[in-house]
C-alpha cells in the first residue's frame, strides 16, 4: 500500500501540469470543437459570413449595400480604421471579409467613372471571397442597371432589394444522408484529447515512475526492502492504472457535460477509444521513465514526441491537409489509429460501429501500447544487466 | 606578538526571534590553525557567513587583516580562500576549467594563474583528472576539487567548512596533510569539523561554540585539563567484593567507580600513576584480576562535557 | 576580467545539455513538426478557391440560358475556374455520382427552372445555389425592365452581359500565409526560453541561490560587470540558436519568411536580448531557487501561447478585443515584429514593436540593477 500511495502522491505533485493541460483541453478543445461542429440538415441554409463594414460615403447606395449585407450576412464593426489591422483581422479569421466604402462612392457609381470603387479585403483567393464579392457586385450591378434604364435611384434600390428578398426562396435541395460530411462535437473534443491526455499521462506518470529511480539511494533502499518485486510492481501498475482510469473518466464526463445540445448516442464508442488510448499513454510514459531519470528530459521528450505526433496524425491539422507520404508515415504512430477510430465512429451509423474495423483500430492501439511497454522493459532490463 | 588576522567582537545575529550568534568574539592570529567546533545549529556556519560578508549581522564588528570587513572590501576578499561545506563547482566545466575559473576571479595575470592552477591541481592530486567533468569524479575527488577551487589563488586566510565530510580515510589524510602544508607555507586557517580527532591532530587552538556563544577556547591540552575526569581505568575483577571497591575508592585521585559485569570502571581526577596505585592495592590484598585498560580523555569528551549529550538537530 | 567572464559563460552555457535541448533542439523539432503538419498549407493556401465539380442534367433545349451561364463559369476568369460541369443524361445517374462523391452537387434543369441538389449545407452548396440565384436575378431584372421600360431591354441585356465589376480588392503587396505565424511564435518561444540562461547565470552568482554563488560573492570581483558579461554571452548564444532555427526553417524546410535572413537574425537577436533581460529580472526578484526554473518556463510558455504558438489566430483575437496585452507581451511583440516585417515591410508598427522591445529590455535591466545593488548583503 505504501508504494501505491507514494505513486499517487508523486502524481499529485504534478498537479500544476495536470491543471494546465486539462484547462487547455477543456477551454481550447471546447472552442475548436464548437467552431467546427456541423450537423445533418435537411433544410438548405446559406453560409453567412462575418463582414466588417466601414462606410465613409453614407449615401443612399452605400446605406443600401450595408442594409443588404445586414440582411444576408453578419455585419460587425471593424473597430479600427487602419487597413492593415483590418487586413490582419481578416487573415486571422476575426471576420472573414471587410469592405471599405469610400467617400463619393455612390456618386461615382452613378456616374460610372470607376473613380471611388468599393474596396474589399478578403483572405486570399478563397471560396468565401468569391461568393461574397459576387453577391455584392451583383447587387450593385442591379442597382446600376435599373438606374441606367429608366429608374430613379430610390426605385432602383427598392427594386433590387425586393428582388433579393424574393431570391431567398431559391434554395438548393439538401440530400443529407450520411454523417460523413459532418464533424460532431464529440469528434472535435476527443480528437483534441489525443494531445492533452497523452501529455498529462506522459509527464505525470513518467515523473511519478522515476521518483523511485532518479535517486539511486532511494531506489536501492526500496530494492532491499522486504517488499517483493511482484508486489511492488503490482502496486505501481495499480496506482498508475487508477490515475489513468480516473483521468480518462473525468475527460469523458467533461466532454459529455460540455456537449449539451450536440450530444449523441455514440459517446460510449468514443469513450472505449479513449480508454484504449490511455494504455498507449501509460506505455509511452513507462518507456520514457526507463530511458531517463531526469524530469527535465521527460518534459522535453514528452513535448517533442506528443506535439510532433499530434501534428502528423491529424489532431491539430485535419488529416486531409497532410501529404500522402506523411499519412503513410503516420500509420506507424498510435495517435493516427486513435484519430482513425474517431473518424470511423463519426462517419458510421451507431448500430454499425461495433464491427471488425472498429475492433481492428482498437487492437492496433493496444498493440502499440504493448510495444511501448515491451520496449521499456527491454531497456530497463538491459540497464540492469549493464548497470547503467 | 603575532598579528591578529581575524577579529570578531561581540557578534550578534538574529533570525527573527531566534538568536543564532550571541555576542560571539574570536581572534585568530597569523599562522594559526583554529578549529571551530560546535554541535549542529550552534552558529558556526552563520559566523563564517558573517565573516565573509555573505550575511548581514545585527551587532558587533568584524576585522580581517586589520580592516573592517564589508561586501565591497575587495582587497580583503582577494586574500581569503573559502572551502565550503557543500561542493561548489560548475558542472559543465572540467576540473582544470573549474579551478581556472575560480582562480581567475582573484588572479588576473594569465601566466601566474596558469602556474597557480597547476600547483593547486598537483597539491590536491587532481592533475591526472584535469580533463574530467565533475560528475565523473568520485566523492573524494570532488571534495578535493572543491578545495582546489578555494585555495588555488594562494590566499593568506583559508576557511574550511567541514571539508572532509563523506571522504574516505585515504583522501581525508591527504586533505589534512595538505592543510598542514598550506599552513607551513604561511596560510592562517579556520577549520570547522565534527571530527574531533581531525581537529585534535590539526589545530593549534580550538574554539567551541554552543547556542551562538564562545563556550571554550584554548589548545587541545588546555581544554582537556578543564575536565574533572582525567583518566578512566577498566579492570576485570571476577572476585570483587564491596570491601575491595570501597578500598579502591579510598585511593588518592579516585573519585568515582562503576561496576559493569565482572569489570569495574574507575574514574580519576588527576595524578600520574593511578594505575600503579590501584594494581598495587589489588596485589597487596590478593585480589585476582584479569584484563586491564586505561584511557586518557579526548577532545570528544571535552566537547560532550561542554555541549551536553542531548540530540541537537531540530527543524528550523 | 570582463572578457574572461564572457568566454567562461559561453563555455558554461553552451555545454549545458538541458539548455541546449530546450533552446535549440526543441524549437528544431517543433519546426519540423509544424512543417510536416502544415508546411504545404504555407506554400499552397488551403482556403484557396477550388473548382467545384458539379453534375448537370438538362432535359430542356441544349443551349438553354442556364447552360450558357454554366459554360461561362467553366472558363477560367481572373485565375478562377468556378465550375467543372459533368453532364448526365439521367437524374438517377447524377444522384449516384453525388452519393459516390464524384460531384459536389447537381443542377437539374427542367421546364425552364433549375433545381440544385447538394449533399450538405456549406460553402460549396451556398456557392452552387448562389449561381442559380444570380441566373434568376438576371432574369428578374430583365423581366422588370421589359415590363416598365421595354425600350431599354436591349441596353439592360448588354449591361448584364458585361457584368462590370464595381469592387476592387485592397492591395497590400505581399501576401504571407497566416500559418507562418506558428513559426514566428516558435522563434519568440525559443527567444523567451533564454530567460533560463540568465536565471541560471544569476543562480551561480548570488550567494543566497547556490553554493557557487557563495564562492562567487566571496571573490574580489564586481558583480555588475560579471552579470553584464553573462548577459552578453547569453544573448550571443541565444542569437546563434535562433539563427540556426531560422536558417533551418528557411533553407532546409524551404519555408520563406518573406524577410531577408539578416533582418530575421537582427530581430531574433533583439528577441534573445528580451528573453535574457526578462530572466535577469526574474533572477534578481526571485529568491527561491526552485522557482527559477518554474517561473521562466511558465512565463515563456504562456507568452508564446498568447502569441500564437498553438493557435495562430489567438494574437489577432487579443488584438481585436484587448490590444494592450499584445503591447506588453514580449512574445507577441516579437511575433508581431516578424509578421509585420514579412507582410507589410518596415512600417510604423514594425518600428513601434522594436522600440517597445528596447524599452522593455532597458526597463528589465534597470529594475534588476536596482534590486541587485540594493542586495549588497544577501540574506542566506
From TrEMBL, chain A:
Membrane topology reported for the UniProt record: Multi-pass membrane protein
Keywords: Cell membrane, Membrane, Transmembrane, Transmembrane helix
Ranges for domain ABC-2 type transporter transmembrane: 25-376
Domain of life the protein comes from: Bacteria
Coarse class of the protein's main subcellular location: membrane
Keyword Transmembrane annotated: yes
One term of GO molecular function: ABC-type transporter activity
Record-annotated membrane-spanning stretches: 15-33, 194-213, 234-255, 267-288, 300-323, 329-346, 358-379
Subcellular location per the Swiss-Prot or TrEMBL entry: Cell membrane
Pfam families linked: ABC2_membrane_3
Record's GO cellular component terms: plasma membrane
Entry-linked InterPro entries: ABC-2_transporter_component, ABC2_TM
PANTHER family: MEMBRANE COMPONENT OF ABC TRANSPORTER YHHJ-RELATED, MULTIDRUG ABC TRANSPORTER PERMEASE YBHS-RELATED
Name of the protein in its database record: ABC transporter permease
UniProtKB/TrEMBL annotation, chain B:
Protein's name according to its UniProt entry: ABC transporter ATP-binding protein
Domain annotation ABC transporter: ranges: 6-236
RNA-binding listed as a keyword: no
Assigned keywords, A-Z: ATP-binding, Nucleotide-binding, Transport
Matches recorded under Pfam families: ABC_tran, DrrA1-3_C
GO molecular function annotations of the record: ATP binding; ATP hydrolysis activity
Origin species: Pseudobutyrivibrio ruminis
PANTHER family reported for this sequence: LINEARMYCIN RESISTANCE ATP-BINDING PROTEIN LNRL
Superkingdom to which the source organism belongs: Bacteria
Cross-referenced InterPro entries: AAA+_ATPase, ABC_transporter-like_ATP-bd, DrrA1/2-like_C, P-loop_NTPase
Keyword Nucleotide-binding listed: yes
SUPFAM superfamilies: P-loop containing nucleoside triphosphate hydrolases
From TrEMBL, chain C:
Pfam families in the record: ABC2_membrane_3
Mode of membrane association: Multi-pass membrane protein
Keyword annotations of the record: Membrane, Transmembrane, Transmembrane helix
Locations listed in the record: Membrane
Membrane-spanning parts: 20-42, 182-203, 224-249, 261-284, 291-311, 354-372
UniProt cross-references to InterPro entries, sorted A to Z: ABC-2_transporter (IPR052902), ABC2_TM (IPR013525)
ABC-2 type transporter transmembrane domain span: 22-369
GO cellular component: membrane
GO MF entries: ABC-type transporter activity
Protein name per UniProt: ABC transporter permease
Organism from which the protein derives: Pseudobutyrivibrio xylanivorans
Lineage, highest ranks first: Bacteria, Bacillati, Bacillota, Clostridia, Lachnospirales
Amino acid at each position: 500500500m505504501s508504494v501505491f500511495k507514494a505513486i499517487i502522491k508523486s502524481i499529485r505533485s504534478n498537479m500544476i501540469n495536470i491543471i494546465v493541460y486539462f484547462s487547455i483541453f477543456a477551454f481550447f478543445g471546447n472552442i475548436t470543437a464548437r467552431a467546427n461542429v456541423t450537423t445533418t440538415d435537411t433544410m438548405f441554409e446559406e453560409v453567412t459570413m462575418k463582414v466588417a463594414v466601414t462606410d465613409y460615403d453614407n449615401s443612399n447606395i452605400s446605406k443600401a449595400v450595408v442594409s443588404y449585407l445586414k440582411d444576408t450576412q453578419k455585419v460587425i464593426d471593424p473597430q479600427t480604421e487602419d487597413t492593415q489591422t483590418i487586413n490582419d483581422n481578416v487573415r486571422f479569421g476575426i471576420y472573414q471579409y471587410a469592405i471599405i466604402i469610400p467617400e463619393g462612392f455612390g456618386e461615382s457609381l452613378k456616374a460610372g467613372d470607376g473613380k471611388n470603387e468599393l474596396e474589399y479585403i478578403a483572405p486570399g483567393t478563397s471560396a468565401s471571397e468569391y461568393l461574397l464579392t459576387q453577391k455584392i457586385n451583383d447587387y450593385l450591378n442591379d442597382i446600376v442597371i435599373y438606374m441606367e434604364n429608366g429608374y430613379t435611384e430610390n426605385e432602383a434600390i427598392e427594386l433590387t432589394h425586393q428582388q433579393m428578398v424574393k431570391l431567398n426562396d431559391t434554395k438548393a435541395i439538401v440530400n443529407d444522408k450520411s454523417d460523413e460530411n459532418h464533424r460532431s462535437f464529440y469528434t472535435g473534443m476527443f480528437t483534441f484529447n489525443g494531445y492533452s491526455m497523452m501529455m498529462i499521462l506522459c509527464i505525470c506518470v513518467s515523473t511519478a515512475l522515476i521518483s523511485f529511480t532518479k535517486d539511486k539511494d532511494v531506489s536501492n533502499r526500496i530494492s532491499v526492502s522486504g517488499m517483493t518485486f511482484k508486489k511492488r510492481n503490482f502496486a505501481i501498475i495499480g496506482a498508475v492504472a487508477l490515475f489513468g482510469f480516473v483521468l480518462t473518466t473525468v475527460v469523458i464526463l467533461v466532454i459529455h457535460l460540455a456537449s449539451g445540445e450536440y450530444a449523441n448516442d455514440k459517446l460510449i464508442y468514443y469513450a472505449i477509444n479513449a480508454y484504449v488510448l490511455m494504455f498507449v499513454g501509460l506505455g509511452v510514459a513507462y518507456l520514457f521513465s526507463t530511458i531517463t531519470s531526469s524530469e527535465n528530459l521527460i518534459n522535453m521528450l514528452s513535448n517533442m514526441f506528443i506535439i510532433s505526433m499530434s501534428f502528423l496524425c491529424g489532431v491539430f491539422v485535419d488529416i486531409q491537409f497532410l501529404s500522402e507520404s506523411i499519412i503513410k508515415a503516420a500509420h506507424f504512430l498510435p495517435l493516427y489509429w486513435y484519430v482513425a477510430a474517431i473518424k470511423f465512429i463519426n462517419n458510421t451509423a451507431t448500430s454499425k460501429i461495433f464491427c471488425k474495423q472498429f475492433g481492428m483500430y482498437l487492437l492496433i492501439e493496444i498493440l502499440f501500447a504493448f510495444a511501448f511497454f515491451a520496449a521499456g522493459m527491454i531497456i530497463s532490463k538491459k540497464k540492469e544487466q549493464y548497470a547503467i | 606578538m603575532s598579528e591578529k588576522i581575524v577579529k570578531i567582537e561581540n557578534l550578534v545575529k538574529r533570525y527573527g526571534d531566534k538568536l543564532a550568534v550571541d555576542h560571539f568574539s574570536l581572534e585568530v592570529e597569523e599562522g594559526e590553525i583554529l578549529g571551530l567546533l560546535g554541535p549542529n545549529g550552534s552558529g558556526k556556519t552563520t559566523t563564517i557567513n558573517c565573516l565573509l560578508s555573505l550575511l548581514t549581522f545585527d551587532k558587533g564588528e568584524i576585522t580581517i587583516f586589520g580592516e573592517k570587513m564589508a561586501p565591497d572590501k575587495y582587497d580583503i576578499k582577494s586574500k581569503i580562500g573559502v572551502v565550503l561545506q557543500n561542493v561548489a563547482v560548475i558542472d559543465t566545466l572540467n576540473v582544470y576549467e573549474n579551478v581556472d575559473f575560480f582562480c581567475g576571479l582573484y588572479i588576473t595575470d594569465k601566466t601566474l594563474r596558469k602556474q597557480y592552477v597547476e600547483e593547486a591541481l598537483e597539491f590536491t592530486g587532481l592533475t591526472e583528472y584535469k580533463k574530467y567533468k565533475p560528475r565523473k569524479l568520485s566523492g573524494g575527488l570532488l571534495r578535493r576539487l572543491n578545495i582546489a577551487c578555494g585555495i588555488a589563488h594562494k590566499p593568506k586566510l583559508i576557511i574550511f567548512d567541514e571539508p572532509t565530510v563523506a571522504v574516505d580515510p585515504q583522501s581525508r589524510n591527504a586533505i589534512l596533510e595538505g592543510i598542514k602544508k598550506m599552513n607551513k607555507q604561511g596560510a592562517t586557517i579556520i577549520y570547522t569539523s565534527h571530527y574531533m580527532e581531525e581537529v585534535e591532530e590539526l589545530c593549534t587552538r580550538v574554539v567551541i561554540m554552543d547556542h551562538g556563544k564562545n563556550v571554550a577556547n584554548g589548545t587541545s591540552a588546555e581544554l582537556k585539563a578543564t575536565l574533572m575526569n582525567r583518566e578512566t581505568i577498566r579492570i576485570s575483577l571476577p572476585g570483587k567484593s564491596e570491601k575491595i571497591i570501597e578500598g579502591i575508592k579510598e585511593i588518592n585521585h579516585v573519585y568515582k567507580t562503576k561496576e559493569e559485569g565482572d569489570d569495574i570502571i574507575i574514574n580519576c581526577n588527576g595524578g600520574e600513576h593511578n594505575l600503579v596505585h590501584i594494581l598495587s592495592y589489588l596485589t597487596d590484598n590478593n585480589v585476582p584480576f584479569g584484563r586491564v585498560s586505561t584511557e586518557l580523555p579526548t577532545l570528544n569528551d571535552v566537547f560532550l562535557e561542554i555541549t551536553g549529550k542531548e540530540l541537537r538537530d531540530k527543524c528550523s | 576580467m570582463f572578457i574572461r567572464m564572457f568566454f567562461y559563460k559561453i563555455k558554461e552555457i553552451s555545454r549545458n545539455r538541458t539548455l541546449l535541448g530546450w533552446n535549440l533542439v526543441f524549437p528544431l523539432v517543433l519546426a519540423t513538426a509544424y512543417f510536416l503538419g502544415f508546411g504545404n498549407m504555407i506554400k499552397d493556401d488551403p482556403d484557396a478557391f477550388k473548382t467545384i465539380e458539379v453534375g448537370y442534367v438538362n432535359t430542356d433545349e441544349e443551349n438553354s440560358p442556364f447552360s450558357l451561364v454554366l459554360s461561362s463559369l467553366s472558363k477560367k476568369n481572373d485565375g478562377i475556374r468556378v465550375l467543372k460541369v459533368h453532364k448526365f443524361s439521367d437524374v438517377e445517374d447524377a444522384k449516384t455520382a453525388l452519393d459516390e462523391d464524384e460531384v459536389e452537387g447537381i443542377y437539374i434543369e427542367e421546364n425552364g427552372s433549375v433545381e440544385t441538389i447538394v449533399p450538405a449545407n456549406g460553402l460549396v452548396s451556398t456557392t452552387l445555389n448562389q449561381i442559380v440565384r444570380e441566373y434568376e436575378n438576371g432574369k428578374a431584372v430583365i423581366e422588370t425592365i421589359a415590363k416598365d421600360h421595354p425600350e431599354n431591354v436591349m441596353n439592360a441585356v448588354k449591361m448584364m452581359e458585361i457584368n462590370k465589376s464595381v469592387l476592387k480588392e485592397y492591395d497590400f503587396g505581399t501576401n504571407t500565409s497566416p500559418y507562418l505565424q506558428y513559426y514566428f511564435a516558435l522563434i519568440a518561444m525559443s527567444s523567451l526560453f533564454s530567460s533560463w540562461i540568465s536565471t541560471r547565470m544569476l543562480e551561480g552568482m548570488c550567494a543566497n541561490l547556490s553554493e557557487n554563488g557563495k564562492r562567487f560573492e566571496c571573490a574580489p570581483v564586481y558583480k555588475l560587470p560579471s552579470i553584464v558579461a553573462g548577459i552578453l554571452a547569453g544573448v550571443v548564444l541565444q542569437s546563434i540558436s535562433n539563427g540556426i532555427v531560422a536558417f533551418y526553417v528557411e533553407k532546409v524546410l524551404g519555408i520563406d519568411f518573406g524577410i531577408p535572413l539578416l533582418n530575421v537574425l537582427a530581430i531574433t537577436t533583439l528577441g534573445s536580448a528580451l528573453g535574457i533581460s526578462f530572466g535577469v529580472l526574474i533572477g534578481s526578484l526571485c529568491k527561491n531557487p526552485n522557482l527559477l526554473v518554474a517561473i521562466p518556463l511558465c512565463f515563456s510558455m504562456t507568452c508564446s501561447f498568447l502569441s500564437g504558438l498553438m493557435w495562430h489566430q489567438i494574437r489577432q483575437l487579443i488584438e481585436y478585443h484587448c490590444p494592450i496585452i499584445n503591447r506588453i507581451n514580449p512574445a507577441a511583440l516579437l511575433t508581431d515584429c516578424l509578421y509585420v516585417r514579412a507582410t507589410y515591410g518596415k512600417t510604423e508598427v514594425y518600428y513601434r514593436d522594436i522600440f517597445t522591445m528596447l524599452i522593455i529590455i532597458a526597463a528589465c535591466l534597470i529594475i534588476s540593477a536596482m534590486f541587485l545593488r540594493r542586495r549588497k548583503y544577501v540574506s542566506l
